Amino acid sequence: MTSSTVTSSQPDRPPRPNLAFRRLRGGRSPAEFAAAVRRAAREIGERVSCDARYIGRVEAGEIRCPNYAYERVFLHMFPGRTLTDLGFAPRSSVRGRGARTPDAPPSEATSSPALTTGETQGDCEPYDTQDPYDTHINYEESDVLRRAFMTSGGATVAAASLSPIGLASASASERPVRRVGSGEAGALEEAVRRIRLLDDRHGADGLYRRAAAPLRAAYALLDAGATRQATVDRLHTGAGELAISVGWLAHDSGRFDDARSHYAEALATARMTADAALEAHAFCNTAFLARDAGRPREAVRAAQAAQRIARPLGSPRLMSLLALREAGGWAGLADRTGCAQALTRAKALYERGPSDADPEWMSFYGEAELEGLEAQCWSTLGDWPRAARHARRAAHLQDPHFSRNIALYTAELADDLARGGRPDEAAAAGTQVLDLLDVVQSSRIQAMLAGTARVLLPHRRASGVSEFLERHASSPRPV
C-alpha cells in the first residue's frame, strides 16, 4: 500500500485558475453564488451541498471537472454552454475514471478502487479531498453511502449513513496505527457538512447519538498524527468544527451539559492551534447556549469575546451574528438599552453585505435568521407584538430548504401571538409547526410549542384553538 502522505494529488500538474467560472460569478460573493447553485439544483431535482469553499476550489482550478450532478446544475444555470465554456477540462482528459454517461452506474466507470483525481467522484459529494494514492478507501462503498445519505427520506434513516468513509465508529485501538493523510481530513470535513445539511432539514433529535461516533473518530485521527503540517491543520480545524456541530445537535435537543462540553472541546482545540476563526465560532455557540440555559451574563461575555477574536477576520456578517448573540444576552438581563444597541449594530454590519471572508458554517445566516434572532430578543423582553412582527417576517423570508428554521420561526410566532392576546392566530401558526414536525425533530421546537399550548389552554373557545390543542396533545413526543 502506498503511503497517504504523498505531497500532491497531481504532482505533475499544478492547478490553473478557472477564470471563465470566476467571470460567471460576477459581483456575487462565493457564498451567494453557492446559494444560487443550490437553488438551481432544486429546480431540476438535484441535491448538491455547494458552499463557498467549493466555489473557491473551482475558481482556483483544483476541480478540473465537476461530478455529474454539478455538471447538470451548471448547464442548467448557463443554458447553451458546455463544460469547456465554463472553464472546465473535458471529462475524458481527467485521469482516474473514464468518461461515462450521466445515467451510467458508478461501477461502469470505475476500473480501480482508488481515484486519481477527486473531481468526478460521487454524484452527491460537493468535492473530494482524498489523497489519490491512499488506496485503503473503498470508493464503491463511498458512493453507496453518499447516495443513501442524500436520498433517504427521514432523519433516522439518513443518520444511519452519517459516518463517511475514513470516520468509522470503531475504536482507534481496533485499527492499525498509521499516519493519516488528506483523505481522512477530507472525510472529516465532509462529516461536518453532512451533519449541517441533515440538521437544516430534520433537526437535531434523530442525529445527536449518531454524530458522536464520527467525533470520537476525529479525535482519534488527531492522536494518530499526520506528516504534512497542512493536513495537521485541517484535522484540527475539522475536529473543532465537528465538535461544534455535535455540540449544536446536543444544544438543540435539550442536552445543555453535553453541548457545553463539546463547545469547550472545540474552544480548546482552537486555542491549541491559534485558530481564530474556530475560536470565534466556538464562542459564538457558547454564547447562544448560555442564553438558552439561563446564563445571560455569560452569553454577553462570550459574545463579546467572540467579537474581539473575529474582528481581524474581516467578515461583517460574522460580526453581525455575534452582535445578535450579545443582544440575546442583554435581553436575558432585561437590559433593553443594551439589547437595542447590539441589534442596531448587528443590522448595520449585516447591511455591509457578504464577503469572501464569511465562514463556510454561516450559510444559514441570512435576513431570515437576523429577523428570527431579533424576534427572540423582543420576546425575551416581553414586547410580544414587536416579536411577532419579526418572527412572521423570518418565517416568510426563510429558504424552504431550511425546514428546521421555518419550524423554529413559526413556533416563535405562535408563542408571541399567544402571549400577545391573539389566540386564533397563534393556533393557526402552531398548526403549521405541527405539520412540519413530521420531518423536523427538535426538542427545542417541541418545548416552545408546549409552552404555547399552555398559554392557549384558557382560550379553548377561540377559533381553531381547541383543534390545535387536541392535535398537539396527540402528537408524538421526542424520546
From TrEMBL:
Question: Could you tell me the superkingdom of the organism this chain comes from?
Answer: Bacteria
Q: Which organism is it from?
A: Streptomyces cadmiisoli
| Region called Disordered, residue ranges | 1-22, 87-131
Q: Where is the composition biased (Polar residues)?
A: 1-11, 108-120
Phylogenetic classification of the source organism: Bacteria, Bacillati, Actinomycetota, Actinomycetes, Kitasatosporales
Alphabetical list of InterPro entries matching this protein: TPR-like_helical_dom_sf (IPR011990)
Q: What is this protein called?
A: Tetratricopeptide repeat protein
